[in-house]
């Protein structure tokens, strides 16, 4: 399902002394099956954008279309919500059942499965997100770690088999290993199920490693929209709004000075840099 936004403007929080223009005439097209990182400073409009995109926040003006459905109609929003999975920055707000099993099973109830098949399907989904069913199914969601709770929340969303997955900072507050696990899982889901994934991230290194498109929001507008391979040509503009170079980008700058040659523009991942240097030195 493609996502189309045309001239979207939004004021948030509406009808309060603190209201401000959160989105300002944004237009964007997300083709079906893309893995998109949405980036920007705190207060730039990222969360408002994704919540507007999936119909949770009505825009002040403009047109939103997901697949063949325009979201200006309530009936269409109800249909779209069956196809879109949304994971907020605070997964504890979305996990309401008393056990992990019941949370995941809630997303399967509409299928009319037998108890035996329901149990099998819950186990399959938990294992898919890296949680051992026997260990976690009977636990309260609030007996697990922060990273595990995100996996539980994600499992509940995946149970409904969404065509679009939208995540608000899925790795916020996690340590390096848990961040790697969550992002590797999302990439695997994207590849295996060919679903559209949009996620908010503050970490440029994550966006470069896992996404195939980076959209940058600043003051309610899209200021950059590019493939990760373009990062070095775009960075001067990104620096103006507070972006800092990753260790790998700084290393590439240093290598250019030391080697007195320009690094190939296709390099934007660590494995690509290692491969290039290996060939350059002639060592296996």
UniProtKB/TrEMBL annotation:
Every ABC transporter domain range? 3-244
* A Pfam family per the record: ABC_tran
Q: Where in the cell is it found?
A: Cell membrane
Q: Which residues cross the membrane?
A: none
> What superkingdom heads the lineage?
Bacteria
Record-stated family: Belongs to the ABC transporter superfamily.
- What protein name applies here? Energy-coupling factor transporter ATPase
């Amino acid at each position: 399902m493609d996502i189309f936004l045309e001239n979207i403007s939004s004021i948030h929080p509406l009808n309060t002394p603190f209201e401000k223009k959160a989105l300002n005439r944004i237009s964007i097209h997300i083709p079906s099956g893309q893995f998109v990182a949405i980036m920007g400073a705190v207060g730039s409009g990222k969360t408002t954008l994704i919540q507007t995109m999936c119909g949770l926040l009505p825009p002040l003006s403009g047109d939103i279309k997901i697949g063949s459905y325009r979201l200006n109609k309530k009936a269409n929003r109800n249909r779209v919500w069956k196809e879109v999975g949304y994971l907020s920055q605070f997964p504890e707000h979305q996990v309401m059942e008393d056990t992990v099993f019941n949370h995941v099973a809630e997303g399967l109830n509409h299928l009319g499965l037998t108890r035996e098949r329901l149990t099998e399907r819950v186990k399959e989904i938990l294992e898919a997100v890296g949680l051992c069913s026997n260990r976690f199914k009977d636990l309260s969601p609030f007996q697990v770690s922060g990273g595990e709770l995100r996996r539980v929340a994600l499992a509940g969303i995946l149970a409904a088999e969404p065509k679009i997955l939208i995540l608000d900072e899925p790795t916020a507050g996690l340590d390096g290993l848990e961040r790697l696990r969550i992002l590797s899982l999302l990439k695997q889901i994207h590849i295996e199920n060919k679903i559209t994934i949009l996620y908010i991230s503050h970490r440029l290194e994550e966006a470069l490693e896992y996404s195939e498109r980076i959209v940058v929001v600043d003051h309610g507008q899209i200021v950059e929209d590019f493939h990760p391979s373009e990062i070095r040509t775009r960075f001067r503009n990104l620096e103006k709004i507070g972006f800092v170079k990753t260790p790998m980008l700084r290393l590439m700058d240093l290598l250019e000075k030391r080697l007195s040659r320009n690094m190939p523009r296709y390099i934007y991942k660590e494995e690509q840099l290692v491969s290039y240097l290996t060939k350059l030195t002639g060592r296996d």
